[in-house]
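pipeline/complex-builder :: batch 7 item 3
reading input block
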Amino acid sequence: MRIATWNVNSLTARLPRVVEWIGYAQPDVLCLQETKQADSAFPHGAFEQLGYESAHHGDGRWNGVAIVSRVGLDQVSTGLGSPHDGEGTRLISADCGGIRVFSVYVPNGRSLEDEHYAAKLAWLAALRRLLADSASPSDLVAVCGDFNVAPEDRDVWDIGHFDGMTHVSGPERAALAALEDWGLVDTFRRLYPQEGLFSWWDYRGGAFHQHRGMRIDLVLATWPLAEVARYALIDRAARRGEKPSDHAPVFVDFAMDGVGGASGRIGSGPGSVEARHSGTERRP
DNA sequence: ATGGTGGCCCGGCCA
């Protein structure tokens, strides 16, 4: 089961690149963020032609999230169900191939003094409550998306550059860690410990080519699922070329025939997964 | 260079 997440920065502008990417990456489930579309504008037909069902939650100009799946798409739910939902078009979830999949677009926060920063922390806390209220850590759950938080110093190109800025602050990282405390694992990071592995690069100043990026797009999974993660990739090829998003897509492969099997018992916790590959791109 | 790029949609916001 290949589960992917991609902040596309307008699906209207990015549809050709997304169709191209699905064609060669062949995700089973693709979580999208920042479609910037209303539900009525979402291109369900384009995905259907590729063999995928899709569900979208957006109101037009900002945000907008979707799940695209070729392994089933049932029990679709939208929003946080919380006063902290804000604009309300930052979360959608569905059952896909036996996994509860969430596509999330965490608020940016703007700056540490901005009211949007407090709203970001409240949003992450509400996400934790939603998970705790609607699922169990022993379920198969994947929470994928643009978290707008770099979990650790190795997830940014130069931690000194980010002093006093969002995405790396203690409270943001603590809010992310609270999700992990509930029972989620950063699956990509668990497979690949190297520094210099980023998923977002500013459009400005040639940041991509100078490797000035951050890893803020994550595939979090409950332990029963994380234990069968076998391979992951940040596809930097999708950040190159014509009209790229400023984010690269990220995918993780899960060996579903190993769920609950010999490769790991449910709830076995840290230490049960070995990194088996080193195929991700890294800085030269 | 008080900038830069790109998307929304057409002056300014947002990332």
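note: Residues 9-10, 12-13, 34, 36, 60-62, 108, 110, 148, 202-207, 243, 246 of chain A lie near DNA strand B (CB under 10 Å from a C1').
queue -> next item
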